[in-house]
Amino acid sequence: MSLDPKEHDAKVLSTGPLTRPKNSPIDGVGIVAILQKATGPEIVLQKQFRPPINRVVIEVPAGLVDEGESAAQSAVRELREETGYVGTVGNEDEWGVGCVMFNDPGFCNTNLNMVHVNVDMSLPENKNLKPQLEENEFIEVFSTPLKNLHAECKRFEKEGYAIDARVGTLAEGIEIARRWKLFA
Prior knowledge:
The protein is an alpha+beta fold. It has helices spanning 10-14, 71-83, 149-158, 165-179; strands spanning 28-36, 42-50, 55-59, 62-64, 88-89, 97-102, 111-120, 139-145, 162-163. Strands 1, 2, 3, 4, 5, 6, 7, 8 and 9 form a nine-stranded mixed beta sheet that branches.
């Protein structure tokens, strides 16, 4: 797998069906996948080259919703396809599925739900990961302690990576909560 932009055809990587399925309020899902580890929770992230900005981006797993799929079903499927992890989503009316968010309403109408997925690291299927990437996907998966997400984003930016808005917003939210001592 290569994240080198010179090794990919930008036209192939940047095109695709960006339509909302019939009877679906959303185009896609962003996945906040949390690995339950003895050392504390870690968030699953990925590095993926994005032709529109000609850079490798630090992202959460994400994907388009298929016809007839709920946001939770899409998130579990996409997480397994992109990372190999198997996870579960809580009740869709509670913490599991967030509100509909518009990615950049000044430029486009694409939207998504952030879906919160727990990954039980004691399950055998989460020990030997087998992503099922599509032909045009080149993804490097990693995790980082949730409590360090803001500092990690700063470090990645200094190293030349672009930070996806969803990742950056999560990191900023955690940092705001820490600095303003919102939680004891």
